[in-house]
Amino acid sequence: MTAALRLLAAVAMAAAAALGAAPAAAQTYPSKPIRLVVPFPPSGATDIVARTLAQKLGDALGTSIVVDNRPGAGGTIGSDIVAKAAPDGYTLLLSTTSTHSIAPSLYAKLPYSVERDFVPVIHVADATNILVVTPSLPAANVRELIALAKAKPGALNYASSGNGTIVHLTAELFASSAGIKLTHVPYKGTALALTDLMTGQVSILFDNIVSALPHVRDGKLKALAVTSARRSPLVPEVPTVSESGLPGFVSDTYFGVFAPAATSPEVIARINAAINKVLAAPDYQERLATLGAQAAGGTPEQFAAIVRSETAKWSRVVKESGASAE
Amino acid sequence: MDLLNHLALGFGVALAPVNLMYALIGALLGTLIGVLPGIGPVATIAMLLPTTYALQPESALIMLAGIYYGAQYGGSTTSILINMPGETSSAVTCLDGHQMALQGQAGAALAIAALGSFFAGCVATVFVAAFSPPLSELALKFGAAEYFSLMVLGLLGAVVLAHGSLLKAIAMIVFGLLLGIVGTDVNSGVTRFAFGIPELSDGIGVVSVAMGLFGFAEIITNLEGKEKRDIVAAKVKGLWISKAQFRAAWPAVLRGTGLGSVLGLLPGGGAMLASFASYALEKKVAKDPSRFGKGAIQGVAGPESANNAGAQTSFIPLLTLGIPENAVMALMVGAMTIHNIQPGPQVMTSNPTLFWGLVASMWVGNLMLVVLNLPLIGMWIKLLQVPYRILYPAILLFCAIGVYTISNATFDVIQTAAMGFLGVVFVKLECEPAPLLLGFVLGPMMEENLRRALLLSRGDPTVFVTRPLSLVMLLMAASLLLLIVIPNIRRRRADVFAEEA
After folding, report:
1. Largest alpha-carbon pair distance within chain A?
2. What's the per-residue H, E or C state across B444-501?
3. Backbone angles phi, psi at A205, to 5 degrees
4. Would you call B186 and A164 a contact, using CB atoms and an 8 Å cutoff?
5. Residues of B in contact with A164 (CB under 8 A)
6. Which chain B residues have a beta carbon less than 8 Å from that of A187?
7. So what's the pLDDT on residue B228?
8. Which homologous superfamily is A128-226 in?
9. What is the largest CA-CA distance in chain B?
């Protein structure tokens, strides 16, 4: 299908939905439980964000929200389920940067299109990553790390949780922003990568702040910087990468809610307002903080803009790093 | 003392009411399937894996471990009373245990089996607690090259110790390695052998492989066989052993415990190997070997202690190195991964409650088993009378539900059914699926470490022989290979395993 045809089809579908049941349904929405698909396994960060949100959102909307974990293929299986679901507001997706801003440029054959099949509902939260190095590495801050890498191009190894993950691409973004060359050593997940980082088998890792922090406190890892725009309240003493010599460097993971593309604007507005209310609650913000994340919020349009700019950023990194799968 | 602090922490976890309950469930289930001939611990753990998903990781592993050593207790009951091994690891117990039962000594045989197991369980618990910390300390020095060499050693060990045809064992391991290749390559992100099926891009699920090959296949082939379990003749009365019997048995218990503890550590080892080796040892050290097979109490005491000790110490390589050495441990890897715990030397420090809780629960579970089991023997015998045609379809149904719930995917159920079919084919061809599962789990780890070692050495393959630890393990692997190739030893290997026939 050409782009024009695809657009036409999307317009036609949206028009049909708008003319059809949508306005009437919006009056009574929600009249039954809502399914919130999480395309990652239970007990991961996305799942915890979703489950805590589901409880409070259910109260706010006066219905129950059922979290449905559909893991597999880097989150694309669960995302595809929602892409093909009925656009009635009863099937929503809570997903992240990886399925909606990285996957499109990473996989040659993605079963869904982020622009065609989804409408952004709300930006729920941002999670920060932290740059940690093995304690024996002779670099006390980002500037020294860059100088060290420049002295020996390609000699420093960085670990990642797998090819094309945000952990991998953040390191690639860091290397290209700093103009240095690092060698990528992928792991399956960061548990074993952290062990190898502590013993010095590898030197550098950008990890989720919560999983790396205990080791930093034990002195088994050195924290050089956080990847967010502002310092993290969890480690206020650690500077950002941006203030350490790479101005403008930001690499957060966004968590957001998406609905199937033809969902009516009234329903979207309803969910958006309810989630904004949940996000304002201090206890929900505290729960997010324990995951190393900050509550976001805002309008669907603001979230759409974030998805677009993140997609542009990561597609550039994927291309430059050659991480693309096929 | 560190050890005491650790054990205190562990008992704190293991004695928590909820974990006590799961230890009890595991121990009882283990005994149950131990009693039922045809369903082994691998199949049961495979079938229960999905249900542990909703539990705390501590509770999940405590229950699954309970099944493994519970099966060692239960297996002896069937062996002694109806001369049919409930478990392969209790097969040798039939030889003398059933003879004792025929001579009216059923009670004594059951009692010595339980007490020997309990003693071995206690010793093995201390063994695990004492040896794991230094081993995991050593494991932290391991790099990718050492891990790779260790896995080469492990797979070769599995070949040497596999029972049945050597050629078939090798074929099954290679097949397992090939199945392990399916999925996304960690290094390049390219999907291999997924045939455009997105579900396969994460690889074939270990639960599906295990449940299909062991659970489904065992049940299907068991339904083929005729039901003949009405041999229960022996009346069990007086679970007491005489002083003379005790004096005869306790050296055997000690030897069995020691041998089992050591053999449990070996790759490919575990309960089954331990019991066969112990029987052979008892026969060798006995003053009058001709009594064996005619109701020698040592022939029960030794193997039953050894299989329990072996079952427990086989956890050590898993908990300290993250490397499974037999099919049950491969499933434990699956159980840990379900809970997002990567097995490896870091578990002891990052999840101390899990590690020490599991160790302490082994002792707690053994105590439960010895207290509960002897009075419950009558009930276990009743269970043998439930017709298979009712029991098995029910188990099959629960399995299918269990597989579905892991990721709410029908694909997984279909995948398991396909593996079940394959499993039946393997049974017909008399191919052991255990080496396959080991290859399947170890293969991807091995590839990952091989490629990581080469990445870190910038493509220099000599890294495997220039690092001393890696070199030592490769040399050990080479000598194992020699063992297989030298015909003389091959023949002797056949002799050892001939006992089980």
Report:
1. 66
2. HHHHHHHHHHHHHCCCCCCHHHHCHHHHHHHHHHHHHHHHHHCHHHHHHHHHHHHCCC
3. -150, 135
4. no
5. 189
6. 186, 448, 452
7. 53
8. Periplasmic binding protein-like II (3.40.190.10)
9. 70
Number of domains in chain B: 1
- How, if at all, do strands B191-192 and B183-184 pair? antiparallel
ipTM of the complex: 0.79
- The whole-angstrom distance between residue B482's C-alpha and the CA centroid of its chain comes to 26
Q: Which pLDDT score, from 0 to 100, does residue A22 have?
A: 46
**Residue B151, token pair as written in the block:** 């896995």
Instruction: Write the pLDDT tens digit of every residue in B343-378.
Output: 888 888 888 889 999 989 988 988 888 887 777 777
- State which residue of chain B sits closest to A212, comparing Cα positions: B350
The answer on pLDDT for A33 being more than 50 is yes
Which amino acid is located at B34 in the chain?
G
Fold that domain A34-127+252-321 belongs to in CATH: D-Maltodextrin-Binding Protein; domain 2 (3.40.190)
Is there a contact between B198 and A111 if contact means CB atoms under 8 Å apart? yes
* Residues 6+ away with beta carbon under 8 Å from B415: B199, B204, B205, B208, B212
* Domain boundaries, given as residue ranges, for chain A: 34-127+252-321, 128-226
Give the pair of three-digit tokens for residue B432: 């052991």
CA distances from A165 to A15, A192, A289, B133, B181 (A): 37, 16, 22, 33, 20
Asked whether the beta carbons of A80 and B411 are under 8 A apart, the reply is: no
Helix or strand or coil: residue A186? strand
Nearest chain B Cα distance for residue A243, angstroms = 31
- Which residue do the tokens 């030794």 mark? B302
Instruction: Look at the pTM and tell me if it is higher than 0.90.
Output: no
Which of A192, A319, A326 should one mutate to test binding to chain B, selecting the residue with the greatest count of B CBs within 10 A?
A192
pLDDT of res. A279: 94
Which range of residues forms the domain containing residue B79?
2-500
∠ Cα B482 B488 B494 (to 5°): 95
**A34-127+252-321 and A128-226, same CATH topology:** yes
pLDDT for the residue numbered A175: 94
Show residues of chain A in contact with B339, CB under 8 Å: 43
Contact between chains at A44 and B340 (C-beta distance less than 8 A): yes
Distances (CA, A) of B177 to B171, B173, B439: 10, 6, 5
pLDDT confidence of residue B234: 47
**Percentage above 90 pLDDT, chain B:** 15
A44 at interface of B, judged by CB pairs closer than 8 A = yes
Verify whether the Cβ–Cβ distance A186 to B186 is below 8 Å: yes
